[in-house]
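Q: I'm writing up a methods section and want to include an example of the input and output format. Could you take the sequence below and give the corresponding predicted structure tokens, formatted cleanly so I can copy it straight into the document?
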Amino acid sequence: MKKICIIGGCGHVGFPLGVALSFGKNTEGNITLVDINDDVINKINSGCVPFQEAGAEELLKKCLANKKLRATKDMSAVKNSDAVIFVTGTPVDEHLNPKINDVLKVIKLYLPYLNPDQLIILRSTIFPGVSKVVENMLVKSFNAPCKLAFCPERIVQGKGIEEIFTLPQLVSANNDKAFEEASEIFSNIAPKIIKLELEEAELAKLMTNSWRYLEFAIANQFYMMVEERGYDFYKILDALSDDYPRAKHFARAGFAAGPCLFKDTMQLSAFYNNKFFLGQAGMLVNEGLPDFVVGQLEKKMQSLKDKNIAILGMAFKANNDDTRESLSFKVKKVLEFKMAIPLIHDPYLNTEPLDEILKRADGVILGVPHKEYLDLKIDVPFVDCWNVWRNK
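A: Here is the clean output for your methods example:
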């Protein structure tokens, strides 16, 4: 494979993949990132990483200096590619049903630029069966067989480039030729290739994220159960896990948010005709935690009406600038219903300085445990479900 084009390539999935592939021995460094965001395209082409991504800045500069990678808005760049990777995932609608057409619309948009000799790879999470629908669409458009693969990403947000080189890659395809070519691409960057059928790979990605979501739900349910009765959840957790190997991986409480875990759990539920009761229960627990922490602060302060309440951390995870589906915004809404005055702060966003926020705050809720917050000593009532300030 000499030329690879990544559609949606300037985002959190496409960008780390593009940078990683630029150093692959069989790609010859000819990677094109196609996107619609002019600002992000210009940033990447000028050597500026558009979001928090560990290790990306140095590698991007090397890519650009060696002309291994470029970003563009020009859709026609797809025409001359040997492989085209789509990173458009399947979102869910307001009724928590998968919006399959959102993926298909992107594929349809690029059909005039695709041909049967190219390998088409789907990269982001998709609803089980969508690969087959895409295959049918391509065959009809080409009036010939196609080469289609689904190779899901499984990276942690903000550490994608680091993990791409260390994680096994699941590879599924509609025929042997497609599997061979997809394996050739990913064997450049992954230590191991694991073969699955298309539907198996689609389910594997959803099951991975749902499992993680449920781990958080268990911890959050225990946290709410114990704290509501006046006990210290983390004291109990520390005791039960102390030198006890079977509790080694027990998740800690905290907001389970972001663009994937909730969404993919709901997709898996839809796949099982809404009979995935564990997933639905996990959603109720995790989505209920913002209401719980606001309620806990209200108990401490008697009333939140007209009180300045600082929310520290608006990203969906620590030490990151990505606010997609962050539950800190749900905390803000709950506070507003309580007629409180939310004061928001995040060191990775353009907000008021932290010291000014804390001077005005009558109470504090820790939204995300960014490293900038770890050593704070809060002298007003606070709720910290992450266990950062308990011993401060």
